[in-house]
Amino acid sequence: MERRNFFKITSLAGGGLLLSTYLPLACTTTKESAFDWEPNFFIRIGSDNTVTFICSQSELGQGTSTGLAMVAADELGASMDTLKIEFGQGSAERYGNLQDTGGSNGLRIVWSSLREAMATTRELLIAAAAQKWQIDTDECYCEDGFIHRKNDEEKLAFGDVLDIASTLSAPREIKLKEFGDFKYIGKPIKGPKTRMAVNGTTPYSINMKLPNMLYAAIERCPVWKGSLSSFDASEALKVPGVVEVLEVEPTEVQATDYRGGVRPGVAVLATSTWAAFEGKKALKIEWEMGINGLKSSQDVQKELEDDYKTNSKANVDLQNATALFEGGRKVFSAAYDSPHQANACMEPLNATAYHRGHKVEVWAGTQSPQLTRDRIAELTELPLAAITVNNQPSGGAFGRRYFCDYVEEAVILSEKVRVPVKVTWSREDTFLTSKYHPICKDYWQASLDTNNFPTAIKYRGSISRPGGYRCYPYSVPIAFYDYLKYKDDWLLPRASWRSVYAHPWGLGMECFMDELAHNAQEDPLQFRIKLLENAKIVEQKALPWVGDDFYPEKLKNTLEMVAEKSNWGKKSEGIYQGVSAISYNTSYCSMVADISMTNNQVKVHKVTAVIDCGLAVNPSQVKAQIEGSILWGLSATLKDAITVEHGHVQQSNYDTYDLMRISDAPEIDVHIVESTDTPSGTGEVGVPGVAPAVLNAVYAATGKRIRQLPIRSSLLQSTDS
Amino acid sequence: MKNLKINGQLLQVNADDNMPLLWALRDVMDMTGTKYGCGKGLCGACTVHIDGEAVRSCITPIGALEGKEITTIEGAEGNPILQTVQEAWYHADVPQCGYCQSGQMMSAAALLSKNSDPNDEAINMAMNGNLCRCGTYTRIRKAIKNAADSLDQNNN
Questions:
Q1: Are B111 and B143 in contact (CB under 8 A)?
Q2: Which phi and psi (to 5°) does residue A362 adopt?
Q3: Chain B nearest-CA residue for A428
Q4: Contacts of A217 in chain B (CB under 8 A)
Q5: Short-list A181, A184, A165, CA closest to A122
Q6: Angle at A55 (CA atoms; ends A49, A60), nearest 5 degrees
Q7: What residues of A are in contact with residue B36 (Cβ under 8 Å)?
Q8: Count of beta carbons in the 10 Å neighbourhood of residue A710
Q9: pTM
Q10: How far is B14 from chain A (nearest CA, A)?
Q11: Residue (of A348, A339, A398, A399) closest to A650 by Cα position
Q12: In chain B, which residues have their Cβ closer than 8 Å to the Cβ of A193?
């Protein structure tokens, strides 16, 4: 059944539209003396047999370039050992609107079109070889970068048949390979990305150097929505290497808030990054702090709490959940707080731009090469065709690099000086004047029957995301109440942060489920399984990049597996367990945290996780994503948060915003559900369940409910159960 | 102008004495394997070896480095321990974004040059100054142990 489903999905997506989009037929170019054949925008085959995969999606460390290269190599019959990888420039003309990388979509949105393009290329190579050999195409197959004759030693390299292949028309029908024919998919392959990282040669944009390039550092307004009053550059200009000091005019956050939001600032342009940083320190600047100058985190917290007291209407009411609260039934309520957070990518934000008057070229590690290109066209008032966005691998992105303000800055400065400019954010800049995961407060209520078993749920989430409810898996009817939507002038500007709103959502839902289980005196894991047994399939069609419905039985399966793998309920003395179950972007992940408590300090010993992400194209990378997500979630649970006083962020570097370090890292045991369903995302589904698994374990250990992040030992001293 | 011995070669570096080695390497010498992470010695992304010790290059001015042996990730060819560490990193599939990994491997190589069989505690001590936001720590630990085993086999 699983297998049939797999073929149904791929053949469904195999319409002519995609083929015509992805296959400008027999498009050939000559580069220097070698002959290159580019049958589509994913692949380039040289007469010297070089096969280059052009990765349309962004490589942020999640391994998309390796995973997609494996898919391409398998469907084409190329060799991963010799496959070269390049990154596609931002281009809707080439890749449709499915290029920007977010929501763990890298693999799943190009899975079908990439395979179709490669299968077509393969058939053209085979047809060309068959013509050379004067035999039937059925007598030939592609493997390891050669076209082979069946039952024969004879073979032709791809490069040997380009003269013919490039003249052929695409076949009307193509056959995708069957699962059993894959040589790479399903195996822990390492691509060129791993080798480059180990050699230190990954071409991050922070390494960019162009002739006549200036290095820029910007002092940005420390308070969001503040403005520049005046500045004195005289001391900065005395710093050796400083060439120029320029004002940076702010840009408004656009309706789609990935665009705009450049803060007012003063830029120092110099002959090295260090000189620019030193020059920046010597600037004297007066700021007008504006509407947020007196505001602090507590003020926003209070705004959320005050708004909760106002009336709100359910915008989604599944199975008449609201009605099930009426008639004086017993109600149980809880609220969960999560603070502002920073992405804190190891590669600080940076971008290089070269504005030549009539055209602009940028180099940046970006999740949104197309959106960024559109935005630069808008900003510079140049046609889209005049804008080139070279997408470099990112040293971490986690949502922050979907927002293109840092690229806008480089363009703004290069437009002024008309030489290439590289803007490098200092680490302090990335904490003090960036964009942030928003502060949230989520309210949950359950109507209980006489056995304290929930009969209906109300959810009222701050800044709730339309569509977030689609990840609610349980059979208990639920009603969704929206309240405060994030406002762009609100204390700090918003960015996406690994798993975005699924993190506060998961924190609330999975802690609340635990509380409900204990109210009903049931085992928290078995309680969830019970609530998943009769749950309905949830449609996810509203999100265009999610191609699949949500199946509660898959989540239930991960729960049953994690119970077994974690020895749920059978732990040695002093070790306490907590569980969570999350579905996000059509992947499913359950996890169990094993903790101990000493002097009100939580120690996480082990996290066991089970993920169902459909077909695991590269199991080593799938596991790596879950391992990384667990560490990400643990940093938010056990380490620091972003707090604001009088408009100023209080955390400026890794000393005040610490992250999990190797000595904090627990043992991690990840299991992948075997599946041949269409691959779904793995980069985020592991995050939202981490905090609730740990908090539920803390309850198991102490009988105290912590409902806010991060966990502080003071909370454990003062909180009543 | 300074004469610095980097990866076994004596090189002229045309930069201010106060410039941290990190920026001299990256912006002046075009050796970009060493990474800027925090500028304060808090994250370890810029770790290099100076006379065999793991040092944060972001807080080490070049003025004090004449006559010292500087090793960066680009110098792995002449450093069998670092090469072994790189291979262990590759085979354990450690890197995700990879940005911190030059620094991680430099710290690990410095550890293994002094302690051929580090236990978990020794690994924690040597590696706690190296942050990884992608969360590759469990694989880093495994790779260090594998590298120690490989070095042990080579020596026997």
A1: no
A2: -125, 155
A3: B38
A4: none
A5: A165
A6: 135
A7: 206, 273, 348, 424
A8: 18
A9: 0.94
A10: 12
A11: A339
A12: 95, 98
Gap from A207 CA to chain B (nearest CA, Å): 6
A622 in contact with B at a CB cutoff of 8 Å? Answer: no
Question: Which residues of chain A lie closer than 8 angstroms to B37, CB-CB?
Answer: 346, 348, 427
pLDDT at B6 over 90: yes
pLDDT higher at B148 or A552 = B148
Distance from C-alpha of A486 to C-alpha of A255, rounded to nearest angstrom: 12
What are the percentages of helix, strand and coil residues in chain B, rounded to 5? 45, 15, 40
Interchain pair B93, A204: CB under 8 A: no
Domain range A2-199, CATH architecture: 2-Layer Sandwich (3.30)
Closest Cα in chain A, distance from residue B52 (Å): 19
The CATH code that applies to domain A206-291+349-424 is 3.30.365.10
Q: Considering only the top CATH level, what class is B2-73?
A: alpha beta
d(CA A708, CA A701): 17
Of A207, A274, A624, nearest to B93 by CB-CB distance is A624
Which residues in chain A have Cβ-Cβ distances shorter than 8 Å to B39?
Answer: 277, 426-428, 653
Residue A406 is predicted with a pLDDT of 98
Q: Mean pLDDT per 10-residue run, chain A (721 residues)?
A: 29 31 41 78 96 96 96 98 95 89 85 95 97 96 96 94 94 91 96 96 98 98 98 98 98 92 98 98 98 95 88 81 90 96 98 98 98 98 98 97 98 98 98 95 95 94 57 88 76 93 93 98 98 75 49 95 97 94 92 96 97 97 98 98 98 97 98 94 95 98 96 74 44
* Segments making up each domain of chain B, as ranges: 2-73, 76-155
**Cis ω for the linkage preceding A264 (within 30 of 0):** no
CB proximity list for A77: less than 8 A, separation 6 or greater: A122, A125, A141, A142, A143, A144, A145, A146, A147
Tally of CA atoms within 13 A in the half-sphere of A575 that contains its CB: 14
Q: Residue ranges of the domains in chain A?
A: 2-199, 206-291+349-424, 440-718
How far is it, in rounded angstroms, from Cα A56 to Cα A48?
A: 24
CB pairs under 8 A between A and B: 172
């925090």: which residue's tokens? B38
The residues in A 389-428 lying below 8 A from B, measured between CB atoms, are 393-398, 424, 426-428
Assigned CATH topology for domain A440-718 = Aldehyde Oxidoreductase; domain 4 (3.30.365)
User: How far apart are the CA of B55 and the nearest CA of chain A, in angstroms?
Assistant: 17
Within 8 A of B84 by CB-CB distance, chain A residues are none
pLDDT digits (tens, 9 = 90+) for B13-64: 999 999 999 999 999 999 999 999 999 999 999 999 999 999 999 999 999 9
Average pLDDT over residues B61-76: 97
Taking CB atoms and an 8 Å limit, are B19 and A631 in contact across chains? no
Q: Structurally, what CATH architecture does the domain formed by B76-155 represent?
A: Orthogonal Bundle (1.10)
